[in-house]
Amino acid sequence: MKLATLRTAGGSTTAALATGADSYLALPATEVGELLAQADWRAVVEGAAASKDQTVIAAADAELAPLLPRAGKVICCGLNYGDHIQEMGRELPEFPTLFAKYADTLVGAADAVEVHGSGRVDWEAELAVVVGSELFRADEEQAREAIAGYTVANDVSMRDWQNRTLQWFQGKAWDGTTPVGPVMLTADEAGQHFDVRGYVNGELVQEGNTSTLVFGPARLLSYISQFTTLRPGDLVLTGTPGGVGMGMTPPRFLKDGDVLTTEIDGIGRLENQFRIHAPVAATV
Prior knowledge:
Helix content: 10-25%
Largest sheet: 12 strands, mixed
Structural class: alpha+beta
């Protein structure tokens, strides 16, 4: 099944089950994270689908909100594809390189992205993992069983800010700059691996398969759970394949008006136009 968080008339949001290309079924939760917090969330979805009192929402009457607008944790893995590690001039890591974002960074699948104060806005197409049950000090099998599903994300990065220090945080956690969605594909319907692609104005710039991840989804969740509790509705971004702008010769970055498209076969596509205001001079 595919689950989404929709903005509906009046500015409210609802969790929803995709029932076709053009329609959704409203679910008894304001967003997907709230739905996943219910231990019997699968039964809740199945019950809503079987109900005679279904509320059907046409895609034309709603917008795709960020899938998990109130995610308690958004944890990202950098340098996790072999080709991306090479283009950044580094060796394969022994442990995952992790950093955090906030729920404030997340935007919807078709939302415009506003950037103020960066002149080096870069793209990072990624598979993201949605946590479905609590994990703490879990092994890989427990972590695998705790995956609710998968979604599409782009870890948009402000490289001028990221490279000011050895810590990446300030270049990664900008409000309203991380598209996530359009839906969560539940783990029971997902294959083992995904093709991940990124485009700038329709030009393919990134392409990779998650089979080449150094640390796969279950391994990442297990590792993270050794030091912090993961809970339903938390989001883990798994890293990006080669082709980021900073790795190009010469480096290339997004310009005002550019459209960034991120897609994963079987899950869906993000398409976000960038509005870049008053970029500052690059410092590196």
